[in-house]
Stage II sporulation protein E (Leptospira johnsonii), 343 residues
Amino acid sequence: MSIHSFYLLYVNGLYLGYLFGLILVVFSTGVSINNRRVLIPVLLIFIAIAFFVGIHVKDPKIDVGMYYFGLISSGILSVLVIGFRMKTFETLLEADVQMEKFQINIEEELSIAQKTQKSLVDLEFPEAGNFRIYSYFKPLESVGGDLIKTNLGKEGELDFFFADAAGHGVSAAMVSAMAVMAFKTIAPIAETPSKGLTLIHESLMTMIGGFFITAVYMRLDREEKSLTYSYAGHHPAVLIKSDGSVQELTGKGTVLLALPKLFNRDYEILLEPGDRVLLFSDGMFEFYVEEKEFFGYESFLDLVRDYTSLSGRIFLDSLGEAILGLHSSPPKDDMTMLLLEVL
């Protein structure tokens, strides 16, 4: 700016020239000096030099009064602009600090949520005599809304609670955590799976609003090799026979928390050696193979038939990998399965 002021003393065009000098001061000085707090002192030094030049130069080519007026007005404007830039910079800096703190808090909450998630899906199961139990779980996010819990009763019966809370992420995981707590409290006193679901529904209705949970409640009698089950808005599980045939475990029931009263009933089947019962979340079949081709429940059953020669964890892992390979885009829902095998 001081160099430009020398130039202004000998040529006309004060206003446009000084405006150009002002732009140079505001932008080039702001870019070249990292410490924003020295911008105003630097600008004032330049203005002082310009005043000194205006006082000592003999026979100027322009009106000195106008020169000083332009110098003072532009200087004031420059100070205001730089002050605004400093305030904006400090605001952005503070926002960065707050964002960093927010990110740290989110990471801490996700860490807690991930620990909570591990308590929602059982990966190991109690000894069940002539039965083997396996699970498969791939959440969409760090945490998810799917859950698998078991409870071993006093008389040796084994209860399974397989559920899917609407939504994804931390909120769905928290709803699932509350459902798990309800199941653990109710399972020891539930007379049947349908009554267990009803009690879970009633206990959660007073605490949770705006969420829905689909679920299957199963009770395995290991002595009788009978399986009693009840649905709460969940799609049918499937029974895989020893010959590889696949059939639905039919049944109906209303979604948990959708209505004030739950409408459901119990169903029962007898299991034979070689039978397998497969439960799975809708994330296993509600996706697009191509942009406009929906995979669907029936296509999933067809895929299950292709893998019935496998068993145990290999069966679940192979089925899961096949499903992931069919997606036209990254999965948009949790993928969860539970397998009960009869030896």
